[in-house]
Design brief:
alpha+beta; elongated
């Protein structure tokens, strides 16, 4: 991740285990200080613990470090304020014996709370705390929940539109062939046969539509998974520095549809086809031959 941030600035590299007097500077700070890779900066902190050398707690501690890279996270709150230095150098300056905060990245978001509880059980006896990202940034959590709710609303509207389209197509097909169905019934065709005929047409139409939609949607999903969809395509603004509530937002949206969800969508749409085809099929099966043939 840090290497990608340095790559985004296209200047220098990130810190390595061999660096002692090196620093990676946020792109915003570097711009204000007019420094670049190879220059030196003075990093100054307030000591958290006193030292045996006579440096008291609260005293200023400073080091002269060489800038080995610039970092661009896309978040001005980070790029304009932070400087990355080796952990050993920072602990000596602060007088502490280790990091003050550790961030963990989990592979499955569903296990986030379980991981937090496990970590809390390990660190609580030492007087430390463990928090999830949404406990640290409730505003961002609220935004994501609102976006999810809007997604559900859009899905419901999409389902309604699909249902109306199927009903309209099937009903128009039935109305155009009303006299044909009436003649079939008058000649002795069973009403159940008319019903099965309409439902067979709906089933075939649904199968072809779902297959075509799944193929097209699968192609879009594969492209989005491999290359991503730049959000900038939807706006003329530069979103390379997009952030919210202190969190960086990737300006490229990557698809992540699971096979299980894909199967649910396909089966759900096909079932919707069959259910919406019931009304036109029942209407055709209940035709009265004499009245239907009199209509123009």
């Amino acid at each position: 991740l840090f290497d990608r941030w340095c790559g985004a600035a296209r200047q220098g590299r990130y810190l390595t285990g061999q660096d002692e007097r090196a620093a990676v500077v946020g792109a915003g700070i570097a711009k204000r200080l007019t420094v670049s890779v190879g220059d030196e900066v003075t990093v100054q902190v307030v000591r958290a613990v006193g030292s045996e050398d006579g440096e008291e707690r609260g005293a200023l501690s400073q080091r002269r470090l060489e800038v080995v890279g610039l970092a661009r996270t896309g978040n001005p709150e980070i790029d304009d304020r932070l400087v990355y230095v080796p952990l050993g150098t920072l602990t000596r300056m602060l007088g502490t014996s280790g990091p003050n905060e550790i961030a963990l990245v989990v592979d499955d978001v569903g296990e986030l709370e379980a991981v937090r509880d496990d970590v809390a059980a390990l660190v609580s006896p030492r007087g430390l705390e463990a928090h999830t990202w949404y406990e640290r940034s409730p505003t961002l959590k609220s935004l994501i929940e609102t976006d999810s709710q809007m997604g559900v609303i859009m899905l419901v509207l999409l389902v309604v539109l699909v249902a109306l389209g199927v009903v309209n197509t099937t009903l128009m097909s039935v109305l155009e062939r009303t006299k044909e169905f009436a003649i079939m019934i008058a000649l002795g065709a069973r009403r159940s046969r008319i019903f099965r005929l309409i439902m067979t047409e709906v089933a075939l139409l649904g199968a072809l539509s779902v297959a075509a939609g799944a193929a097209l949607g699968g192609a879009f999903e594969l492209y989005g998974r491999l290359h991503g969809w730049p959000i900038e395509w939807l706006t003329e603004q530069d979103l390379s520095d997009l952030s919210f509530s202190g969190s960086v937002i990737d300006p490229v949206y990557h698809s992540a549809l699971t096979p299980e969800n894909g199967a649910i969508i396909i089966c759900g749409v096909y079932l919707l086809f069959l259910l919406t085809g019931l009304a036109p099929a029942l209407k055709a099966a209940r035709l009265r031959p004499v009245e239907s043939m009199r209509r123009k």
